[in-house]
Amino acid sequence: MLTNNEIKLINSLQRKKERQKNGLFLVEGVKMYEELIKSNFRIRKVFSTIEMSDTAEYTLITDSQLSKISQFSTPNQVLALVEIPNQTVIDFNQPSLILEDVNNPGNLGTIIRTADWFGINQIICSNNSTDCFSPKVVSSTMGSIFRTNIFYTDLAKFLTESQLPSYGAFLEGQHLQKTNLQKKCNIILGSESHGISKTLENLIDYKVTIEGNTKAESLNLSIAAGIFCFQYFQNNR
Amino acid sequence: MLTNNEIKLINSLQRKKERQKNGLFLVEGVKMYEELIKSNFRIRKVFSTIEMSDTAEYTLITDSQLSKISQFSTPNQVLALVEIPNQTVIDFNQPSLILEDVNNPGNLGTIIRTADWFGINQIICSNNSTDCFSPKVVSSTMGSIFRTNIFYTDLAKFLTESQLPSYGAFLEGQHLQKTNLQKKCNIILGSESHGISKTLENLIDYKVTIEGNTKAESLNLSIAAGIFCFQYFQNNR
Fold first, then answer.
1. What pLDDT, in 10s, does the model give residues A193-219?
2. Residues in chain A closer than 8 A to B223 (CB atoms)
3. Could you tell me if residue B143 is left (phi over 0), alpha (psi between -120 and 50 degrees) or otherwise beta?
4. Alpha-carbon distance A116 to nearest alpha carbon in chain B (angstroms)
5. How far apart are CA B180 and CA B183, in angstroms?
6. What share of chain A is helix, strand, coil (3-state, %, to 5)?
7. pTM over 0.80
8. In this predicted complex, what is the ipTM?
């Protein structure tokens, strides 16, 4: 059964502060749940409106109960309470995608999904960035969140300490099409409205631009990230 | 001044049927307005909460009036009523991005913006696709909608009549990285959940896939479109 305390807890988890306090986040929908049980993430509790064939324990609930706890307007059968994994340590020797002040949850989710597709599994965000365990981010990763290590840290400090070559996405710079992104490197993208800050710009080895038609003002952040990841994969297959 | 009839008309334009009946759509925000006045689109009326320096006529309104007519939760100073352009004829000799059943407005807007960046200015959507003049699509094109010809038609009929080589995005096929997309071609993407239909598949010359890590299930539709456009631009610069 679904208790009132559980309803209260689950709904509180749409807020970052409550997720951090409880060490929990929400995973919703059948497809996401299938990705979840393939991962090492620890499941605290599962609520489902359908009989489930796998062996994990779950609580059968009604559609109307699900709609009380779902964070989405069209809930999809399953909701799991999942433990936020213990933060591991940044691997300075791994290729990383670095995001400064990404604030759109859909963009962050899509970027995590795309980086995973192209084999980049370490993402480092500035402390100001949107939280990767919000329902909207989790859902738009389509499961890639379970295969990606995501850190929030001081990017200037990270770039100062990192020994890997760093490539930053700028509106002007050498063309990405002619750039050979090294196997072990840092790829940095700024926010869509402000780009990469001056502080970080000074710590970046190569300023790189995605050449295009000059009439359009810029690319969407997740599109730019996707194109960098594509080029990275192409350079290192 | 802003009349009650205008409020009623403007709010009705969030619905496709009303946009078509009135031949009008909404353009909101300062940046979008700046792109609009650079275009050939015909402006019917402009409402603004700020004094505007350009010569066009406008109606000064209050913030609270703007919030009554804006389709967004954070309105941004300007709202223009704009005429939906008369449909021109599909140019069978131009490179086209072809979208089958794209239903997410944010995705369509981002795709229009990205195609424009890479110089593809003809987009052809299946009749089932989301309408390009909805507020959410218009806004996420960031002005590219004013530089792009967008058609809604029977794609099977179009592909049958087109003489250009066609490349379709599939989960299996020749690698995009090794494909040379010709200058004059059709690039086809299916919906994120269903991919390209069997009917269209039979009309496509080359099945192309974006190679990546096999663990992730797929790419977001607008990311896939962006990577195809990037490759197209790279092949034809």
1. 899 999 999 999 999 999 998 777 789
2. 110, 113-114, 222-223, 226
3. left
4. 6
5. 9
6. 35, 20, 40
7. yes
8. 0.94
